[in-house]
Amino acid sequence: MPVASATRGAVAEPSVATGAADGCPPLEIVSMLYGFAPGGVERIAARLHAAWCDAGVRSEIIVADSHTPPPLALMHVFLAGKHSQDRGLIAFVMLVLALRRRVRNAPPDAVFCAGNTYTSVAVILRLLVGPTCPPIIAKISNCLVRHDMPPLLRWWYRLWLHFQGRWIDHFVGLAPAMRDEIAEFIGVPHDRITVIEDPALGKDDLVRLAKLRDLTPRVGGGRQYLAVGRLAPQKNFALLIDAFARFSQSDDQLVILGEGAERAMLEAKAWSLGIAGRVQLPGHVATTEAWLARADALILSSDYEGVPAVLIEALAAGIPIVSTCCCVSVDDLLGHGALGRIVPVGDPTALADAMVAAALPEPASVIAARRAAAAQYTIDRASTLYIALARQLAEARSIDISLETRATHVAPVATAAF
Question: Which of 143, 205, 237, 349 is deepest in the core (most CB within 10 A)?
Answer without folding.
Answer: 237
